[in-house]
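Per your request, structure below.
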């Protein structure tokens, strides 16, 4: 029979009353410990063998415990924290519907399949997988929602470490070696002279590394555009023990850029050499070092080569001709002694000196600005006498009038054009289409669609010409239905520096103030079968120290004044301005007279 006896009623334990064979006992329930009269909670988290939370945190509770599992694990009754297969349950992963889910112990990974771009949480078609999506002279860069075709010749990182040179002595005894395992992207090797990856097997322990890499093949020509080649690493007597792909672009101007994908091992590094010996040189090894030395032939062409660039002027002489004529090529300098020459090898070897176009000895007329300087060359001395320096004067003229176009419609693009006039120097003008009203966020990619309800924000910039007193003035900006700027169908946005007053959506944010001009206009469509819109601008560089460059729009007469009186008063205003500023003319807009700055003509006119 069962007889009930009293045990402790504390909520920390369970009362168990028994009678069996005359023996009574109180025992604590599982999760508690004590004599039955007094029961205390057992902390299962104190010892790992008392719980099953191997892959999580143990949290003690009254009479039991719970497991807080680590990410990638779930709790199962009686088993504790077990590994979760997130890929088997869509609610446990955030992979994109097109992505591939891969389960790992305690985690998972999302990856987009081939032909798609993204981090696995989001995937979209990768247009860059199409090899023909970009012109052969550009490469494709994919981003979320779009892609861009970039010219590697203007989008690269310069590498100019001197330890890479093949002319450096062997570093076999050096403790530290360089490694290019991290190099990813487009690079240009540059130093005192243009450099490139050598096309011959480079000895071990040279160029600052264990195993120098060289180009197993020849560099492409400019006509080839971008080409794929293989870079080899020399080690253990094998000139191509390791190899790595490399993409090369031959750029206008005689230099190369390389798309590098890292090196297959360490310590491997890409090295660079000057271009192969020129046609007027031969390679000779002197004291264990191979270098280019002038041939003994005579040279007839003694004329220097002058290049007038937008941001740099280059003057070069035949190095071998100067050597044979008794001149010391190491002494060539400008008026500023710190501007020294360096050696450059192309079809023949040159001694080249570079300089920036700067104000000072310059001249300006209505159409050009001219920079002048002097080159000094010392003859070689015999240790006894020294003859005087030879002075070579030179100058570069740059046009102030330029034109630039932007292709903006189905395929709007940030376009750049170099303006060459009369074989003189060049300034670079660029036109860009922006997404936002503060002229930020330039559109990229080969296609941008814009509705006729959206605004086009357009900027015109001139690369720094080295003359701080020059500003950009937009003279005429207009739209055409084709890429030809001379197309007879056109719509004027800015005319004679003034905006088109018949279009209230046009706004000129900046003109004649700095090296950039900015305007906005609501997108429109030409009537007919035209489905594209092209923008063009004729611009001029204006000298703020000698000209009034900011266009002025001021109402001078009311609308109700008679035509005859308006014409007379306009002539009168024009004559009075002509006697003082010489830069204004009267423009009739919407039956009102407006005063606009005209920096493009030296004469005055009444329209």
């Amino acid at each position: 029979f069962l007889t009930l006896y009293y045990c402790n009623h504390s909520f920390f334990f369970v009362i168990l009353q028994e009678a069996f064979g005359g023996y009574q006992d109180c025992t604590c329930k599982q999760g508690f410990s004590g004599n039955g009269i007094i029961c205390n909670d057992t902390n299962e988290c104190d010892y790992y063998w008392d719980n099953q939370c191997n892959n999580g945190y143990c949290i003690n509770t009254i009479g039991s415990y719970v497991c807080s599992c680590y990410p990638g694990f779930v709790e199962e009754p009686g088993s504790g924290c077990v590994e979760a297969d997130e890929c088997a349950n869509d609610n446990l992963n955030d992979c994109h519907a097109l992505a591939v889910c891969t389960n790992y112990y305690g985690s998972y990974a999302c990856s987009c399949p081939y032909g798609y771009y993204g981090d696995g949480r989001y995937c979209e078609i990768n247009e860059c997988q199409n090899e023909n999506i970009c012109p052969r002279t550009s490469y494709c860069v994919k981003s979320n929602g779009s892609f861009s075709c970039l010219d590697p010749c203007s989008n690269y990182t310069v590498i100019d470490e001197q330890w890479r040179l093949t002319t450096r002595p062997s570093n076999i005894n050096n403790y530290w070696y360089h490694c290019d395992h991290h190099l990813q992207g487009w690079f240009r090797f540059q130093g005192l002279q243009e450099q490139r990856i050598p096309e011959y097997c480079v000895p071990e322990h040279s160029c600052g590394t264990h195993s120098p890499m060289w180009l197993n093949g020849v560099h492409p020509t400019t006509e080839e555009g971008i080409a794929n080649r293989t870079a080899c690493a020399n080690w253990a007597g094998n000139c191509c023990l390791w190899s790595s792909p490399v993409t090369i672009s031959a750029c206008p101007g005689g230099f190369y850029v390389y798309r590098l994908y890292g090196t297959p091992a360490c310590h491997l590094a890409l090295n660079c050499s000057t271009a192969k010996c020129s046609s007027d040189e031969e390679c000779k090894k002197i004291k264990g070092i191979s270098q280019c030395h002038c041939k003994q032939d005579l040279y007839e062409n003694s004329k220097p080569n002058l290049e007038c660039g937008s941001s740099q002027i280059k003057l070069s002489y035949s190095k071998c001709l100067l050597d044979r004529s008794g001149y010391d090529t190491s002494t060539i300098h400008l008026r500023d002694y710190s501007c020294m020459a360096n050696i450059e090898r192309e079809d023949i070897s040159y001694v080249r000196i570079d300089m920036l176009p700067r104000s000072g000895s310059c001249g300006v007329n209505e159409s050009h600005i001219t920079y002048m300087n002097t080159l000094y060359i010392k003859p070689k001395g015999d240790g006894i006498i020294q003859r005087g320096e030879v002075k070579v004067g030179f100058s570069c003229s740059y046009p102030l009038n330029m034109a630039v176009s932007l292709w903006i419609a189905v395929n709007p693009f940030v376009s750049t054009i170099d303006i060459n006039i009369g074989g003189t120097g060049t300034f670079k003008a660029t036109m860009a289409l922006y997404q936002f009203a503060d002229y930020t966020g330039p559109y990229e990619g080969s296609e941008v669609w814009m509705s006729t309800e959206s605004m086009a924000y357009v900027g015109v910039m001139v690369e720094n010409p080295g003359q701080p007193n020059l500003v950009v003035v937009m003279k005429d900006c207009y739209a055409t239905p084709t890429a030809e700027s001379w197309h007879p169908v056109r719509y004027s946005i800015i005319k004679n520096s003034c905006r088109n007053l018949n279009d209230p959506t046009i706004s000129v944010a900046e003109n004649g103030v700095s090296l950039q001009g900015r305007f906005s206009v609501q997108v429109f469509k030409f009537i007919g079968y035209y489905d594209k819109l092209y923008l063009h601008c004729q611009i001029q560089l204006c000298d703020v120290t000698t000209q009034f460059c900011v266009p002025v729009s001021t109402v001078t007469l009311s609308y109700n004044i008679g035509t005859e009186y308006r014409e007379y008063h306009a002539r009168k205003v024009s004559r009075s301005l002509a006697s003082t500023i010489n830069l204004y003319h009267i423009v009739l807009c919407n039956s009102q007279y407006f005063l606009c700055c005209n920096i493009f003509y030296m004469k005055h006119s009444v329209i």
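Confidence is low (pLDDT under 50) at residues 1-5, 9-20, 407-423, 554-607.

Regards,
D.
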